[in-house]
Amino acid sequence: MTVTIEDIELAHDRLGGIVKPTPLILSETFSRMMAAEVFIKPENLQKTGSFKIRGAYNRIASLSAEEKLRGVIAASAGNHGQALAYAATRAGVRATVVMPETAAIAKIAATRNYGQTVILEGIDYQAARAAAARICAESGAVFVDAYDDAQVVAGQGTVGLEIADELSGSRGADVVLVPVGGGGLIAGVAVALGARSPATEVIGVEAAGAAQLSASLAADKAASIGKPVDTIADGLATGRIGAIPYSLIRGRVRRAVTVDDFEIGAAVLLLLERMKLLAEGAGAAALAGALKLGGELAGKRVVVVVSGGNIDINLLDRIIGHGLAKMGRLYRIALTLHDRPGELNILLAQIGKMGANVRAIDHDRTRRDIAIGGAYVSLELETRGPEHIAAIHAHLRKAGYDITEEN
Ligand SMILES: Cc1ncc(COP(=O)(O)O)c(C=O)c1O
């Protein structure tokens, strides 16, 4: 089964009035950081919060009347399910979405809010997929794969068509970076750009704990990583590339950049702080990949696909915490005080004098590693950066405190 530029153009016509236009945004900050001309394709601002509405709607639009009556079923880490539920509701079709028990709470709630059925089953995407296949065999509903489906790939390809159209009046993009889960998005984008902007290089960005594109390019076939997935980018955590996407990726995408969770988290923060764009891990992965390529992109015109923005606020909180600690804007220390009235007050006065704000404090007199008569205190401080941390550290040591742990 193949996907042609005509299939993508047809999908684009079908999606008129359904998807939101997401015009490219030129980022001065990222352009400066990479000495390149960097554009963002902000699909986090897309309806349902990700590009997935494109493939899901195109698939539903291509169902026959008889298939529509049978309803649709899908397995999804969240975004495909959310998009399918929205598309099905608009088309008056029943949808069942099987999500892993670990799916993001925001994605489960949004899918239910579209008035469709959500079943939570399995520890990860592949387990949910197996459950969906079983339920599908029992119910007779039409299975809509999240990526291994020609109509879904054609729908995702409209992202590439829009990039080519928007840059058509000028020099096209030299490089387009696309996040890769099962490969549906990059396959569609590669077909669209291959036809409309053949000089553009399409690079896949994958999560280190779900490096199925590297595995597939190495084996030159749709491959699975052969171990459990492990990444904060749940949208990329498929563990395998689909056969249809790989048949299109083959020869069109030659390169995978692999990014770890720290790099993905840093990219989430950068998008938030510098561009006021909220991206989920999968959505920020392509930016992490671009930053990793760094100097290689110098002088080039680069498009980074920010594919989705449906992130759990709890995860965002953890990412922000890690990021702040790394930037020196959060500092944790532990020390032991004499357990006497007023000692904690004196310590806090010293910290206040240094202009640090206490974010959290733990005061424990019964730890086994503390002498009777001692009190263990750990503090999380809001700081202004590494120099401020060094000054606080020096001040406390000078005041006689023995800092036992810090990070
Ligand atoms: C936000 C986001 N980005 C990227 C992807 C990867 O897309 P594909 O599975 O088509 O490679 C997904 C898939 O769920 C996603 O939700």
Give a description of the structure.
With 407 residues, the protein is an alpha/beta fold. Among the domains are: 172 residues, Rossmann fold (3-Layer(aba) Sandwich), CATH 3.40.50.1100; 78 residues, Alpha-Beta Plaits (2-Layer Sandwich), CATH 3.30.70. Helix content is 45%, strand content 19%. The protein has 16 helices and 14 strands. It has a 6-stranded mixed β-sheet with strand order 1-2-10-7-8-9. A 4-stranded parallel β-sheet has the order 5-4-3-6, sandwiched between helices. Helix 1 crosses helix 3, helix 1 packs across helix 8 and helix 3 runs parallel beside helix 5. It is globular. The protein starts with a helix and ends with a strand. The mean pLDDT is 95. The structure holds pyridoxal-5'-phosphate. Pyridoxal-5'-phosphate binds next to helix 5, helix 9 and helix 13. The site of pyridoxal-5'-phosphate has 24 residues, from helix 5, helix 9 and helix 13.
Give short descriptive properties of this protein.
407 residues, Rossmann fold, Alpha-Beta Plaits, six-stranded mixed β-sheet, four-stranded parallel β-sheet, 45% helix, 19% strand, binds pyridoxal-5'-phosphate
Question: How many whole angstroms does the radius of gyration measure?
Answer: 25 Å
Number of helices: 16
How far is the first residue's CA from the last residue's CA? Answer: 53 Å
Describe the largest sheet.
6 strands, mixed
Give the low-confidence spans: none
Distinct small-molecule ligands in the complex: pyridoxal-5'-phosphate
CATH class category name of the domain at 23-42 and 171-322? Alpha Beta
Task: Enumerate the strands of the largest sheet in spatial order, edge to edge or round the barrel.
Answer: 1-2-10-7-8-9
Tell me what portion of residues adopts beta-strand conformation.
15-25%
Count of distinct strands: 14
